[in-house]
Design a protein that fits this description.
737 residues; alpha/beta; eleven-stranded mixed β-sheet; seven-stranded mixed β-sheet; 22 helices; 20 strands; globular
Length: 737
């Protein structure tokens, strides 16, 4: 697939942004060594002329003593191979954190044992002496691109420190630097024996709102003795260089600018910068920052790495503009646009996709039409998800699955990709993981079951007693999508199944991922369909291996909890009310194997969330298996583009196709910001079902075919200033045809 927006872990886009900016920072800093004094004077004069940012800027100093970086066999030494920019930004970038495991892992420097990435990042945050939820994330994020960063950053960093310290005429510093070279050589010799690398300190520049503006990584003590506070005077040259580059080329967003005021998170470094910062026309705070964040609501914004679709350069390196015809794809200039326009084969070129992408862009207003009070904020292209969640106290439980906010020390662990905790499943409250830090978000279950079928968020919210200001739709999109398929789409497309009159349903959730990490949200199906016994079987090789063959039961009423060895877990979770009539339960089963290898009874229904057929090879085996089963199979996608790609993959794999996608009324309201395009992406945005190839001698229900393809433009779009001259030349041949 050309676009991976909506499928890729946000962490990887964020790491790519940090990595790309740091590479540019190191490269430009290294070129200043030839004429250091004159170049710095020129840069300082340039910064003094910059407009002033009214926001306060913060320079954070984050030491690390406990977490190291271990390079795997996939990360070879040298500037060519290894974990380079192409690994995060290339034509086939990784989609998940686990894809980086052959190249880099985090290890504990205290006990030498490898741990989970989340645990190591959490330990790093503890050593950084902060309690803000975002801090451990920042301390750990730059680690994946460590190999190249280390090799590129050390020479210019050491040369700059040496040159600037020489001007201070401090002989003791030269002696100290000489003493440090011997252990550094010994460390380099040990690296061949898989000794973990040490990210000893992180310098981070942000504004008061949390926008990251610059970053510097100090490996293996190159900064002197940052782990020991008395040695932080050696940080001053590097910190000053970082501040200058952050003002001239801010990583986060906006044009070059200087802050109205700067505060520093280290007392020694604050003192050393007092004579340097005024050169830039910036006011330094009288005292250093004594706490992690200058404001209680401080969070790091989840900045997407805006990049050119062709060369993958970031927005802080080049000016990105969308295609003038479709306004969907971002390019850094006409050269990349022309290269993408003429790609071969033709069906992967932008010339082929441009009119189709333009049609997809026209659906942006329809997808953003939601009844919530916060709709305008969360459907904006500049939506700051972390700030939205933090302002509402949604920083624990399942809400951590939606953002990059990591709980600080003493808070529950972020369950990234983890198995649902058994203790949490058995505590008697099915909605605990859905709550925030404030009052309960989910009201009590209504006494009477629904009297009519719900076809919109507004109808469901009204019956459930939820305010339209509640963000619960972001989590409930999964069970409500299943409900919508059962009650609306299956009766429309497969009326012969009479699914609404069935008392039990067996549903396979194929290629399951994030929805299994949110498994307790499916409890809501018992509220919406109280008289149907449901069995959900989550299938996919991306599920945690330890959850294989796991089985537990959720029942409507009764406070008791029972364990049945050999048959899984039975949890009786109380809904808080006693209801009339017979009660059913919800069976949850897990299989961590590809779907085509699954053995067992035929399901009544198959569902897949945000499927992305073109992103995983197992779909080429899964789809033929579904073709042989010929059961109703419904899938969601995060964009209309994904639906078109899925139709093509289905045709290749089975000779069948897909139905025309339709907007899902129970899609997530949070817009997913893309890296290299401006298309509207939402979790579970569209729904379609598979149209199987007719069996020999039989017939199959035909589904509406895809919309007719719009005409393909004959020439690539050109800038507006030249379009008028080209328009007449391009219209003539079209009239002749």
């Amino acid at each position: 697939m050309e676009f991976v927006s909506g499928y890729r872990d946000e962490f990887l886009d964020f790491a790519a942004l940090l990595f790309g900016w740091f590479r540019k920072f190191v490269t430009e800093k290294g070129t200043m060594g030839t004429n250091l004094e004159g170049r710095w004077r020129q840069l300082e004069a340039q910064i003094r002329r910059l407009p002033q940012d009214p926001a306060l800027w913060v320079l954070h100093v984050l030491p690390n003593r406990s977490v190291g970086i271990s390079l795997g066999q996939g990360a070879e030494p040298g500037p060519g191979p290894g974990l380079g920019a192409s690994r995060l930004l290339g034509d086939e970038p990784p989609l998940h954190l686990r894809d980086l495991s052959p190249y880099v892992t985090f290890v504990s420097l205290e006990d030498g044992e490898e741990g989970e990435e989340e645990e190591d990042e959490e330990e790093n945050g503890k050593e950084s002496s902060g309690t803000e939820k975002a801090e451990p994330q920042e301390g750990g994020e730059p680690a994946p691109p460590s190999r190249e960063l280390l090799q590129e950053a050390k020479p210019p960093a050491e040369s700059e420190v040496t040159q600037q310290e020489a001007s201070c005429d401090d002989g003791c510093r030269e002696d100290r630097a000489e003493d440090e070279r011997a252990p550094e050589k010994r460390r380099k010799g040990r690296r061949s024996e898989a000794t973990p690398l040490h990210l000893s300190c992180l310098l981070l520049v942000t504004d008061e709102h949390g926008t990251i503006l610059g970053i510097d990584l100090l490996m293996d003590g190159t900064q002197g003795s940052v782990g020991q506070n008395p040695g932080t005077e050696n940080l001053a040259p590097r910190a000053y260089a970082l501040l200058c580059h952050s003002m001239a080329c801010p990583m986060g967003s906006g044009d070059p600018r200087k802050p109205r005021q700067l505060t520093v998170g280290d007392a020694h470094l604050h003192r050393d910068l007092e004579s340097l910062i005024p050169r830039l026309g910036v006011k330094l705070a009288k005292t250093p920052m004594r706490t992690w964040g200058p404001r209680p609501g401080f969070t790091f914004a989840s900045l997407r790495a805006r990049t050119c679709h062709v060369c993958h350069k970031h927005s802080f390196e080049v000016k990105l503009t969308p295609c003038p015809q479709c306004s969907a794809v971002l390019y850094c200039g006409e050269a990349c646009l022309q290269a993408d326009w003429r790609r071969c084969p033709d069906d992967v070129s932008h010339r082929f996709w441009c009119p189709r992408l333009a049609a997809f862009m026209e659906r942006a207003g329809e997808l953003a039409s939601l009844p919530f009070t916060y709709t305008a904020e969360v459907t904006s292209e500049t939506f700051n998800k972390e700030a939205f969640l933090a302002s509402r106290g949604l920083t624990r439980g399942y809400w951590t699955q939606l953002s990059m906010l990591i709980p600080g020390p003493g808070a529950p662990r972020n369950p990234w990709g983890g198995t649902p905790s058994l203790s949490r499943l058995l505590n008697g409250d099915p909605y605990q993981l859905l709550q925030g830090d404030g009052p309960a978000l989910m009201p009590p279950v209504p006494l009477d079951p629904p009297r009519s079928l719900f076809g919109s968020w507004q109808d469901y919210y009204m019956w459930r007693g939820l305010s339209l200001d509640s963000p619960m739709a972001v989590l409930l999109t999964y069970p409500l999508t299943v409900y919508y398929v059962i009650t609306h789409l299956v009766p429309q497309s497969f009326p012969e199944l009479n699914i609404q009159n069935k008392q039990s349903l067996k549903i396979h959730v194929v290629e399951a991922g994030k929805e299994f990490d949110l498994v307790m949200v499916f409890w809501e199906l018992l509220v919406l369909l109280p008289h149907v016994a449901l069995e959900l079987q989550f299938v996919g090789d991306s599920l945690p291996p330890e959850s294989d063959q796991q089985h537990f039961t959720m029942q409507r009423d009764g406070p008791e909890v029972s364990l049945r060895p050999g048959s899984g877990v039975s949890a009786r979770l109380s809904s808080g009310t006693k209801e009339k009539g017979g009660r059913r339960d919800l069976q949850i089963r897990v299989s961590t194997r590809p779907y085509h290898l699954l053995q067992g009874p035929k399901p009544d229904l198959v569902i897949g969330f945000n499927s992305g057929f073109g992103l995983k090879d197992t779909w080429l085996s899964c789809l033929p298996r579904l073709q042989s089963l010929r059961v109703p199979a419904f899938f969601t996608e995060s964009s209309e583009y994904g639906c078109v790609m899925d139709d093509q993959i289905m045709a290749v794999a089975t000779g069948g196709g897909t139905s025309s996608p339709q907007p899902n009324p129970f899609r997530s309201p949070f817009r997913l910001r893309a890296a290299d395009n401006c298309m509207p992406w939402y979790c579970n945005a569209f729904i379609f079902h598979l149209v199987y190839k007719p069996a020999q001698g039989g017939s199959v229900r035909s589904a509406p075919g895809p919309a007719p393809r719009p005409p393909t433009p004959a020439a690539p779009p050109v800038p507006v200033r030249r379009r008028r001259g080209e328009k007449k030349a391009s219209r003539g041949p079209r009239r002749r045809r």
